[in-house]
Design a protein that fits this description.
Helix content is about 55%, strand content about 15%. By secondary structure, it is an alpha/beta fold. The protein has a domain of about 210 residues: P-loop containing nucleotide triphosphate hydrolases (Rossmann fold). It has a 6-stranded antiparallel β-sheet. Strands 8-11-12-3-13-14 form a 6-stranded mixed β-sheet. The chain has a two-stranded antiparallel sheet with strand order 9-10. The two termini are about 35 Å apart.
Length: about 650
């Protein structure tokens, strides 16, 4: 799939008013690179939001207050319009977003080959399925996502990979298989007799009612998770605001930075040791030497008992039904009963398999004190972390007379209570622990695993009545295979993406020892707990560039302020590599970000320069390289790390 943006235009839009941006040459061919010089507050964020919405369709979900923010101030206007013209594969499209400032609603109109408008966002179904908001955010790039690509607890890196390569659709095919069983059931049960038909109808209604309950519980889970994320994000923001305020206090700035650095280091070590402990926690022989010795004793007793390897209860049960014994004698009623009674002294084949696995597992194990040492190390680190938390509390106490800081503390405490409350509700909703389910008297009406168990029972009853048990088993086998295929494909893809990302990181940050170890929701760095803002941005470009270069999608990359947090050398490296990663590059920068970043582009052919200049409550475009080079805004500042 190939996408090229040809132009966009504004009508009655805040900051831009009435303006058209044309990205093509005289022959209608789009320039490979378009650089926009704009001061802060002159429409960059507005443009990014509208461009993204033009492809994702997300404007339909905007709130009235958000829509009205696009209205130019001090003007009595009923509506605004934003149009994007682009080529998708070989087809020309014109998408228009109409902003009704009175009702606060946004509407779409689409024209194909400029032959009249149709209401709504009328892109091909295959394209609309790809252009989710999450997917579009990968090429209409919000710099905030760069932080989430590396942030612990976020899954931005993996979501980007799954969305871009449509990995989720593999396991989604499994649902198609289950749906086919449902269709067969529907086609079967109306043809049964009245008595059976009534039973099937009742069982199906029970199943559908249980599915409805499960769906409501899962919707509640989604809502709680969204609410929890919002609370945690706000808490993280408060933490950053508190840290910034503390650092602004000259008397405690050094104490603050030392404490933050120590906590970051300890958190990284805790995470590393915790993962190591969790990796071996299921090996009981490592808990203590006594446990190991007892398990070895158990294994020796199993060997002494000479538990049968090949013969099992099933053998004798089958033999009892035969007409003749293996010894050649006939099997009558007396022999039949004797064989069945004797079979109870033997284990079932499944039980024998478990016993043999236990014997093999115990035999191969060796005790080492490594787990005990790691647990002790983890305890020491947690003690050190608690000590640093207490030290942080002492530092915060020096701001006790600061009203603004105290307001942040108050809000933070309220958020912690809300986070704990929501976490408890989520736990009750999702826990699989039977003891906890019983202790809290949870039922299928308020616990997803219990509800799924009840639904499974109802499904089994329906399958028994409709005779689709075998069909459902086959569908579930297909579903499990598809999940395994998705897992294996994702694992292999991650390995390849990590390798190529690290190659680009070495080029972007040649003097930094930064290596991506793995993708686990977020990018995990080798022997590093985190990265600076500038490093995070460079790593994000390397990662996104790798994703797009390896995918089947050839899309433009639209980015706002790509260089603000980068030092000068990294800016040069980024500006050199970006044109190589994307065939169409659209960049919005301020004059404060120009140094060391724009220099590389001045030497390239096929670069289009736009300088957006405010003039008499409106803006004009200057399309000259010199104007781009010399433009200076008073409110632009260089922010390098």
């Amino acid at each position: 799939m190939r996408l090229r943006i040809l132009s966009w235009s504004y009508l009655n839009i805040r900051g831009m008013n009435n303006l058209e941006i044309l990205l093509t040459d005289n022959g209608g061919k789009p320039y490979p690179i378009a650089l926009f010089m704009m001061a802060n507050g002159t429409g960059k964020t507005t443009t990014m939001a509208l461009l993204g919405a033009a492809f994702s369709g997300s404007a339909s979900e905007w709130t009235p207050s958000f829509v009205k923010e696009f209205k130019p101030p001090s003007k009595d206007l009923a509506k605004g319009e934003f149009r994007v013209r682009f080529v998708l594969d070989n087809d020309l499209y014109l998408v228009e977003i109409i902003l009704n400032y009175n009702s606060g609603k946004a509407f779409y109109r689409t024209s194909r080959s400029e032959s009249g408008y149709d209401d709504g966002l009328r892109l091909p179904e295959t394209v609309k399925r790809v252009f989710s908001k999450e997917f579009v955010d990968r090429f209409i790039f919000d710099g905030e996502l760069a932080k989430d690509i590396l942030k612990l607890g976020k899954d931005e890196a993996e979501k980007a990979l799954k969305n871009l390569y449509q990995i989720n659709y593999v396991s989604a095919l499994g649902k198609v298989a289950i749906d086919q069983v449902d269709e067969v059931q529907k086609s079967l049960y109306p043809t049964t007799n009245a008595r059976t038909d009534h039973a099937v109808t009742r069982i199906r209604q029970d199943k559908e009612e249980q599915e409805k309950i499960l769906n409501e519980l899962k919707q509640r889970e989604i809502k709680l998770k969204r609410e929890l994320k919002e609370k945690k994000d706000r808490r993280d923001q408060i933490e950053e605001d508190k840290s910034r305020q503390l650092k602004s206090d000259q008397t405690i700035r050094e104490q603050v930075q030392i404490n933050i650095n120590k906590r970051t280091g300890v958190d990284g070590k805790i995470k590393e040791v915790r993962q190591k402990v969790l990796g071996v926690i299921r090996s009981p022989h490592l808990f203590s030497k006594t446990t190991f010795e007892r398990m070895n004793y158990l294994a020796s007793k199993m060997n002494q008992l000479q538990l049968p390897e090949n013969l099992s209860r099933q053998f004798f049960e089958e033999l009892a039904e035969a007409q003749e014994c293996v010894c050649g004698r006939p099997i009558g009623p007396h022999e039949h009963d004797s064989i069945l009674n004797g079979s109870t002294r033997y284990l079932g084949s499944d039980e024998i398999g478990v016993i043999n696995e236990m014997k093999s597992a115990i035999k191969d194990n060796q005790y080492t004190p490594e787990l005990k040492d790691d647990i002790n190390k983890l305890n020491d680190l947690l003690i050190e972390r608690n000590s640093l938390e207490r030290e942080w509390g002492v530092i915060e106490g020096q701001k006790s007379d600061d009203n603004a800081y105290n307001e942040l503390l108050k809000e933070e405490k309220e958020l912690e209570l809300s986070i704990q409350r929501i976490s408890d509700q989520l736990n009750e909703l999702t826990t699989k622990d039977r003891l906890e389910q019983e202790r809290k008297a949870l039922s299928d009406k308020g616990n997803i695993p219990l509800c799924e168990n009840v639904l499974a029972d109802k499904e089994r009853k329906l399958n028994d009545v409709t005779g689709t048990v075998t069909l459902l088993k086959k569908a579930k086998v297909v579903q499990s295979y598809l999940k395994e295929i998705e897992y294996q494909a994702l694992s292999l893809l991650k390995e390849k993406i990590v390798e190529n990302t690290n190659y680009k990181i070495q080029w972007l940050l040649p003097f930094e020892k930064i290596t991506v170890e793995r993708i686990d929701g977020h990018l995990t760095l080798l022997r590093k707990a985190g990265a600076s803002q500038g490093q995070s941005l460079a790593i994000a470009y390397a990662y996104l560039g790798t994703l797009f270069s390896e995918s089947a999608y050839n899309f433009p990359f639209v980015v706002d302020s790509p260089a603000g947090a980068l030092d000068l050398q990294v800016r040069r490296n980024v500006s050199t590599i970006l044109p190589k990663l994307f065939d169409q590059l659209i960049v919005f920068i301020t004059s404060g970000e120009r140094e060391a970043f724009a220099d590389v582009f001045y030497k390239l052919d096929g670069v289009q320069y736009f300088t957006i200049v405010p003039e008499n409550n409106n803006v004009i475009i200057v399309r000259e390289k010199d104007a781009f080079y010399t433009f200076q805004s008073e409110d632009d500042t260089i922010n390098t790390l």
